[in-house]
Amino acid sequence: MKRGVAIGLVLGLLVGSWQTVRAQDLTTQLANFLVDLRNQTLGASNTTILSFTATNTALGTTSTDGLVLTNTTDAAAGAQQISPRIRLRGEGWKTNATAASQTVDWVIENLPVQGAAAPASTLLFKESLDGAAYTTYLTMGGAGVLLQPSTVFGWVGEARFTPNADGIVILTNAAENAGAALDVTTDGKLQVKSRALGVGLVQSGFIATGAAPSVANVGANSCGTSAATIAGNDNAGIVTVGATSGTQCRVTFTTTAPNRWQCVPTNETTANLLRSTAISTTQVDFLGTMVGGDVLSYICMPR
Questions:
Q1: How far is CA 190 from CA 147, 168, 182, 204, 250, in A?
Q2: More confident residue, 147 or 259
Q3: Closest to 204 in 3D by CA, of 187, 216, 219, 217
Q4: What does the pLDDT look like over 178-200, one tens digit per residue?
Q5: CA 114 to mean position of chain CA atoms
Q6: What confidence tens digit (pLDDT) does each residue in 47-64 have?
Q7: In sequence order, what are the residues at sequence separation of 6 or more whose Cβ sits closer than 8 angstroms to the Cβ of residue 123?
Q8: What is the rounded distance in angstroms from the CA atom of residue 216 to the CA atom of residue 222?
Q9: Does residue 65 have a pLDDT over 50?
Q10: Rounded distance, CA 247 to CA 123, Å?
Q11: Rounded Cα gap, residues 289 and 217, in angstroms
Q12: Which of 83, 148, 184, 268 has the greatest number of C-beta atoms within 10 Å?
């Protein structure tokens, strides 16, 4: 059956060529076709076969094979069987010395991935310039659509995304001279930074999430004779003054502010006033008259 199909394909291609170009006789076309078939260079010797059209009719909305490239060898443990690939080749001109035409290739192939209950598949799009090794630029499969780390994703003449490092992507305009960076290198925290990644413009985790900062005495028993406690995160929380009175509690944040931390503290237990003084890019002091056990709530933002 396979031999009959192959013969039918050969005759079909030759007859199609014969219908179009009669400059060569059938014997010559058949000889050239067999040479190309052996060399896997269809159309090189028999130049009358320059294109191929397969037509199916009356399919309606039923998905139907039009062209199948298959590898029928069974896979084994640790030995998957990749599909035959489709290669699209063109020629491009390079202007640097020595100027010349060079091949430009793209291939599309299906790479199986071994699995426990069932295998998976990965569709690969690869590029080769001037016969060099192929570079994979796009991967599609069970893990989603993945781009090569150096690949810029965007829209022609509009916005684009550029990967910078693991967990950091830069969103810019088409000219790449305006934009900002999104940083998720810390779990549960989104930071919006400048394109140069030097300054944190916005940090998420406000009020609801984030690790708790620490609180401590500055001088002897300045935040109570026993250890003060703190609950919350860098942006909002509660300090509970230790036993007996105090006048100064130092809070150390988990995140470094670009310039300083700015806080609004409130004594929820008494009417005594509190104020905040920035000590560094990671610390502030809550100052005022405090009684042991006072609850000091705060809201803080980096700037």
A1: 22, 10, 7, 5, 26
A2: 259
A3: 187
A4: 888 898 888 877 888 888 876 55
A5: 23
A6: 655 566 778 899 999 999
A7: 108, 109, 110, 111, 139, 140, 141
A8: 8
A9: yes
A10: 66
A11: 14
A12: 83
In the chain the beta strands, taken as DSSP E runs, fall at 86-94, 100-113, 120-129, 135-141, 144-147, 153-154, 160-165, 168-172, 179-183, 191-194, 200-203, 214-217, 229-232, 236-240, 246-252, 261-267, 274-278, 283-290, 295-302
| Token representation of residue 105 | 């290739």
Distance CA 284, CA 277 (A): 5
Least confident interval from 118-122, 130-134, 153-157: 153-157
pLDDT digits over 137-176, tens only? 889 987 777 777 667 888 888 898 888 889 999 999 988 8
Q: 3-state class of 69 per DSSP?
A: coil
Burial class (CB in 10 A: 0-12, 13-18, 19+), 150: exposed
Chain-centroid distance, C-alpha 223 = 47
CA–CA distances in Å: residue 260 to residues 266, 277, 282, 301 = 19, 10, 7, 9
Give the whole-angstrom CA distance, residue 8 versus residue 29. 15
* Nearest-angstrom CA–CA distance, 104 and 40: 19
